[in-house]
Every structure is written in C-alpha cells, then in structure tokens.
C-alpha cells in the first residue's frame, strides 16, 4: 500500500487536519499518482459542511494534476513520470448503456466518485485529492497536454468539463451568441471556452467590478444583472446561456435573454429550480442540464484547452493554508479558483 498525508475532516464540524492514510494496493488496471496540485471547488465546501456523520471521514478534492508514480501490470495508457490529471469520477461499470455511450459520469450503476463515493470492488469510502498520492483506475487518468500549467489546469477537470459539455452539445461556433451568467470559477472558464470556439460572448454579472475582467477573458459585452434597463436591452439576444449561479434563484430573467429556440443551462445550482412554463413556451425556448463528462469529452476538452492556451485563473496556496482557501471561497474572495500545492501536504 501507498502511505501518504491527506487533509481530512474526521466528523462534522472538524477542520481539515493532516492525517496519514493508506491508499490501496495497485490492481492490474490501477495507476498511482503523486498529486501536485488540487483545485478547491464549492462541492468541497458542501462536503465539509455536511451534518450527517455517515458522510465522514472526508478528504475533499476532485480536480487534480500530478505525475504517475506506479502503474498496474495491465496499464499501457500512461507510464511512470507522465504528467496526468484526474477529475470527479475514478471508476464506472463500463457495461451499462451510458458507459457504452461514453457517458461514464452518468453510469447507471453509479460511478465511483473521487471522494465521498464507494469503491465498487472493496466497498471502501473514497478519499480525495487533498493528499500526496491517489490510486485510480487507469481509464480515468488523463494525460496532461504539453503547455498546460499543472496548477492552472487542475480546475479544468471539474469546472472546465462542466462548461465544455453544453457548449459542445449546442455546437457553439462562429456566429453563436453565448451568455455566461456569473463570472466565477465556472463562469470565467465558460467565457474563455465559448470565445475560443468563435462565439460572441456576453457576460452577465451582478458585480460591475468584474466588467473589465469579463472583457479580458473574452466577452464582447457585459450586462449587469441588477440593471433592469440593461437586461431589457439584452432580451432575446442570445442562443445559449450558461447559468453558473450556485444558489437557488429565479431563472426567468435569464430565459428572457434567449432568442427564439434558445437554450438555458443552469449548471451552478444542483437543487430544485422552478420556472413558469409560459416563459419557455413563447419562442420555443428550452431548459437543459449539464455537469460532469465522459472520458472522450474530457480528452477533447483538454486537447482544445492546450490548443487554445486555456487554463483557469488561479491563486495557488500551500496545502497548509487549505483552511484559508476554504474560508475565502466561502466568502467569495477569490478570482477565480484556489489551487492547493499538495506536494507541501
């Protein structure tokens, strides 16, 4: 087994603390990764804020980069020393219709989550990437393309995949008009990806202070959502809107931005959302969903980002400052993603 240090909360209310853990012995199709950088996601906050003792112990982290330490006897896709990246799932059944359709994130047998999941082979709780090493099934380890900085690329494995999916599903390209609601960890990558695909991008933000940033990221227009006149002026002007707001909110103002037959993707909030059907009916507008991605989609996203020089805007903190990262993220004090340097765990 591989012994490593992880940042673990043992029970509800606990702060993360360095803890020695044992990673499993490598199976024939396993890869051991030395984690160098791990992104800090809002999902990590939700996990640490859980009140159910059954959800603990928890080691957060599901977007990380590193180097291959060791490979199982059947592994040929990567070799020791390769730069790699891992996202929010680390196994799936591989046999259900969704897996066969390259949608492993939605495996009908439920995929194995990078943390907070259950290993399908030994029944053990999975512990995440806030650690010095991780063991993962080889099919869910991705080569990190040359030219992508490992710290700034780590958030691509969650936030990047989340934005990539709907943009590709809607075949966004030159002539497309894309709106991105919320310029944060998700949204700033949405702007960059849509612009690189050739779309005209509108950033919709509640903070006028982010206007210059949105333009720097590639937006050609910024609409302040609190400005009723600006929202009315933008009505009916967008083909695709990516809504990255992370809490319950009214969808109708953003449906109002859609042109006829446009589509709204709420990707930031995973709770219950509601909307009057008439808001969609007039103009044949659509409400869709996205999140996560299969293996093929993840590979294509990484290749596209390498080709276009797309990474996240990150602030890198040592692992010893994980609590600071968590609290600042909770307060919205980050532009636009914290990444922990895990070699310092």
What does this entry look like structurally?
The protein is an alpha/beta fold. 24% of the residues lie in helices and 26% in strands. It has eleven helices and 17 strands. It has helices at 42-48, 97-100, 150-153, 159-169, 187-196, 211-217, 228-234, 252-255, 277-281, 295-308, 322-330; strands at residues 2-8, 17-23, 30-40, 64-71, 83-86, 89-91, 112-113, 133-137, 142-143, 177-181, 200-205, 221-224, 238-243, 258-266, 286-287, 314-318, 337-341. The strands form four sheets. Strands 3, 4, 5, 8, 9, 16 and 17 form a seven-stranded mixed sheet that branches. It comes from Nocardioides acrostichi.
Key words describing this protein structure:
345 residues, alpha/beta, seven-stranded mixed β-sheet, 26% strand, globular, NAD(P)-bd_dom_sf, EC 1.1.1.2, zinc, oxidoreductase, ER
